[in-house]
Design brief:
Radius of gyration: 17 Å
Structural class: alpha+beta
Order of helices and strands: HEHHEHHEEEEHHH
Number of helices: 8
Mean pLDDT: 94
Oligomer: single chain
Length: about 190
Amino acid sequence: MAWQAEHQLLEAAGFGIARGLSGPELARAEALVGARFPPDLREFLAAGLPIGEGLPNWREPESKALRDQLDWPFEGIAFDIEQNAFWWDAWGTRPPGLADAILVARAQVALAPRLIPVSGHRYLPAEPGLAGNPVFSVYQTDIIYYGNDLGTYLRCEFDLLPYADAVAGEPRSIAFWSDLVAANNA
């Protein structure tokens, strides 16, 4: 997939498209995330780096904005643990102290596939290392699919594809994150 249509879509929405990431730049971005990017995301970013508000700028890995996007999924879970009594049964019995509960949750979430920011609070899981992973909308523990893959997500986000079509069928199941989606839909 060349990604030209998707980059044009982003440009039409007011975003810039900078020169694509080089091999060393991709490696630096992956080191920051702590996981290799799936092949479709690697190709997308190598073909052109989208630039604009809410988009991760992988050329500025030290930026606070990028660090905040990387921290967002766990920070939302921690907020729900503290404020909304969230606790995932698979983590075992919740420790009585908040600090201990957050430590257990952080260790458990660290076992889940890393989420790579795509735009705002939309994330692509790093695992499995295959093209076609779903894009999640992550807001605290309110997690939903927002596209069955990167291409359908982009077309949905920029109003070329209805949401129902972007998530039609059965997206690839991703450990932990898909379980949260299922729990939200139960």
